[in-house]
């Protein structure tokens, strides 16, 4: 339940509050404190300070928790705990609060027993009573008047309010006749409303203009298409979503040739933004513009590419700002080259933003994870320390370059690249660990995330998540951490004696609460034991779950933690997988496979001399769902054309299939003139 208080009684004495200085407020301030989310042991607090006194250039807000609560992390402020007393101070970018102006920040905290509202707040040493006082009168300058409320919200606050976000991918950005060209249904208002109902605060609406713009001067944008974009934008604004629109796949369709076709590219680009600026001139500030998606340029070095992108971003800025109305201070979002966080890309965009000298600018990057893990290649089947370090480094660089200097960062697309081939490219538990950690670390760095969804996640007609477990984990990560474990799978050989099985819990700051099957709590000591971070499921409980021990997932248990999403552990009955000899055309070749309850993790391919075979021949471990694809229903492992096109004709290849149980199968294939022979010897 949301709670609120507005600057109440006299602040308790003896807290050691600093006396006011020139930077401090005259007596007169108001604080709105709200618990916006609460769960077992944790909560999210939102704080809004309104300065009713003289303008300040920096601020320090102090309060005392009544029930022993503690702040665990904050955004748009730095906080320290001293017993029950909290001091929150401004960041470098939000220290100034004019008279009648406001600034907001948020935090996650812990609580136990009760989560009462602080009784009083003090701003720069002055107790906030909620009563305005006029600034002092200067005898030399004559009387001053209290300036009107600014009503403005900083770019940092705007982008923070957009967390979490969702992408309406492969619809208005589809390359073709209309928004259904890539297989998604026509966008409806119900879809937008249902996205908002999932808890999202922003929606990124990618738009490709190529087929909806004349190909000769003056490169007019199709009015009917612009009307359609506006209709969808209005639906999103009506659903109380922040909205981001852009120029999307045009970046590679025609803008990439800017170095050799500069006049046309600039003219087309400027025509689109002139039309958009005019159409949305009076839209509310919840609408943001992004200059271009994933900018890239053909056959140029980085220095040339940086200059070309600077030209586009600067032109975009000039066109929008010059159009007036709400566009005069609308938040504008600028990408790095390729929208990635390599340091050179960040530095180049920093130079552009510094030259523009505009406080209402945000930076955007995209993140699809450590590439070998995100597509399941080179043996990176698990969310290990190297994968985690890549994420941390990526977010840290963006934070240090931009956020720490007052420029908000929007990760306009995030997810796993392997999803483009199949959402099962990365094993479920390892996938969940990635999304749990990405959500957590983005919060630490005050970076807003927008999930890339081209239709593979949220069903656009049934309005249901295709993977509810993934959504539950992502949603929990918006506000807190979730516990995980070393695996979400327990494999028990079908004919083996059932024994106790142990897993290592990754507590992530939580505490383990228990194990359950459905809604039934299992008994510690009988069904399981816990020792530190080691969870052991007893053989007796596994036997019950395995039932008749037919192949596959026979049941599951859930590890429950003090906060966040539960962790499902599947109990699987299996035997050694087997494969059969086969022949066929390379375009349709598939290996007959009896999986026997097991699941495929990865595949190696080597020639007789041990060198890697097939695509990406720098590694023997091939890319899941691209170089090989298991079909558990059909009982096959397909080796598509993408694999054979990189294999030497008439040269035997040894395939080693690695399964999640730890079992392996060795198989041999030879292609000759488009025909394949597969054997076990």
TrEMBL record:
- Which Enzyme Commission number(s) are on file for it? 3.2.1.4
Q: Which domain of life is it from?
A: Bacteria
* Listed InterPro entries: Carbo-bd_X2 (IPR005102), CBD2 (IPR001919), CBM2/CBM3_carb-bd_dom_sf (IPR008965), CBM2_carb-bd_dom_sf (IPR012291), CBM46 (IPR040946), GH (IPR017853), Glyco_hydro_5 (IPR001547), Glycosyl_hydrolase_5 (IPR050386)
Q: Which UniProt keywords apply?
A: Carbohydrate metabolism, Cellulose degradation, Glycosidase, Hydrolase, Polysaccharide degradation, Signal
Give any Pfam family that matches: CBM46
Query: Kind of enzyme, top EC level?
Result: hydrolase
Note whether DNA repair occurs among the keywords. no
Reaction(s) catalysed by this chain's protein: Endohydrolysis of (1->4)-beta-D-glucosidic linkages in cellulose, lichenin and cereal beta-D-glucans
The residue ranges of the CBM2 domain are: 22-131
Q: Where is the signal peptide?
A: 1-25
Q: Does the keyword Signal apply?
A: yes
Xref: PANTHER family: ENDOGLUCANASE, GLUCAN ENDO-1,6-BETA-GLUCOSIDASE B
Q: What name has this protein been given in UniProt?
A: cellulase
User: Source species, please?
Assistant: Glycomyces mayteni
């Amino acid at each position: 339940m949301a709670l609120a208080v507005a600057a109440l009684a006299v602040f308790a004495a003896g807290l050691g509050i600093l006396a006011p200085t020139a930077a401090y407020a005259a007596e007169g301030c108001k604080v709105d404190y709200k618990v916006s989310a609460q769960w077992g042991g944790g909560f999210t607090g939102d704080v809004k300070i309104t300065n009713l006194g003289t303008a300040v250039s920096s601020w320090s807000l102090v309060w005392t928790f009544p029930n022993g609560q503690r702040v665990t992390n904050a955004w748009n402020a730095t906080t320290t705990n001293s017993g029950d007393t909290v001091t929150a101070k401004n960041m470098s970018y939000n220290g100034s609060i004019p008279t009648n102006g406001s600034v907001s920040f948020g935090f996650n905290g812990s609580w136990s027993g009760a989560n009462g509202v602080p009784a009083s707040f003090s701003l720069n040493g002055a107790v906030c009573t909620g009563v305005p006082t006029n600034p002092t009168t200067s005898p030399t300058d004559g009387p001053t008047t209290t300036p009107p409320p600014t009503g403005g919200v900083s770019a940092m606050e705007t982008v923070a309010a957009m967390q979490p976000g969702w992408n309406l991918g492969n619809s208005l950005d589809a390359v073709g006749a209309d928004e259904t060209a890539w297989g998604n249904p026509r966008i409806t208002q119900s879809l937008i409303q249902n996205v908002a109902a999932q808890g999202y605060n922003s929606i990124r609406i990618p738009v490709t203009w190529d087929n909806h713009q004349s190909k000769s001067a003056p490169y007019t944008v199709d009015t009917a298409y612009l009307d359609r974009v506006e209709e969808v934008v209005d639906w999103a604004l009506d659903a109380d979503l922040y909205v981001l629109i852009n120029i999307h796949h045009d970046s590679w369709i025609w803008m990439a040739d800017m170095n050799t076709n500069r006049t046309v590219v600039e003219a087309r680009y400027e025509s689109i933004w002139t039309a958009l600026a005019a159409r949305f001139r009076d839209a509310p500030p919840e609408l943001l513009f992004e200059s271009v998606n994933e900018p890239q340029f053909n056959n140029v070095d980085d220095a040339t590419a940086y200059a070309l992108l600077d030209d586009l971003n600067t032109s975009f800025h000039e066109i929008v700002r010059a159009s007036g109305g709400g566009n005069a201070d609308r938040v504008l979002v600028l990408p790095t080259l390729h929208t990635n966080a390599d340091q050179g890309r960040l530095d180049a965009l920093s130079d552009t933003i510094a030259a523009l000298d505009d406080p209402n600018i945000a930076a955007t990057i995209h993140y699809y994870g450590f590439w070998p893990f995100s597509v399941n290649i080179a043996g990176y089947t698990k969310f290990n320390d190297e994968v985690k370090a890549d994420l941390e480094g990526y977010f840290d660089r963006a934070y240090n370059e931009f956020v720490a200097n007052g420029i908000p960062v929007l990760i306009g697309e995030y997810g796993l690249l392997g999803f483009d081939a199949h959402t099962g490219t990365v094993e479920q538990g390892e996938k969940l660990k990635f999304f749990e950690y990405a959500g957590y670390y983005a919060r630490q760095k005050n970076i807003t995330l927008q999930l890339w969804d081209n239709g593979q996640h949220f069903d656009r007609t049934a309005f249901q998540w295709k993977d509810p477990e993934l959504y539950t984990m992502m949603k929990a990560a918006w506000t807190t951490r979730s516990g995980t474990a070393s695996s979400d799978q327990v494999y028990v050989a079908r004919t083996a004696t059932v024994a106790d099985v142990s897993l290592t819990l990754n507590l992530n700051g939580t505490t383990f609460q228990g194990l359950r099957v459905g809604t039934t709590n299992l008994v510690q000591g009988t069904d399981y034991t816990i020792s530190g971070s080691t969870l052991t499921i007893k053989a007796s409980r596994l036997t019950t779950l395995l039932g008749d021990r037919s192949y596959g997932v026979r049941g599951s248990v859930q590890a429950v933690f003090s906060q966040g999403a539960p962790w499902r552990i599947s109990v699987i009955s299996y035997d050694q997988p087997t494969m059969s000899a086969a022949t066929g055309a390379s375009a349709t070749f598939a290996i007959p496979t009896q999986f026997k309850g097991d699941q495929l993790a990865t595949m190696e391919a080597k020639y007789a001399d041990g060198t890697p075979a097939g695509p990406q021949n720098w590694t023997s471990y091939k890319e899941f769902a691209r170089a090989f694809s298991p079909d558990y229903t059909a009982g096959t492992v397909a080796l598509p054309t993408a694999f054979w096109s990189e294999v030497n004709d008439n040269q035997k290849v040894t395939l080693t299939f690695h399964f999640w149980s730890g079992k392996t199968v060795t198989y041999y294939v030879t292609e000759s003139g488009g025909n394949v022979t597969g054997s076990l010897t």
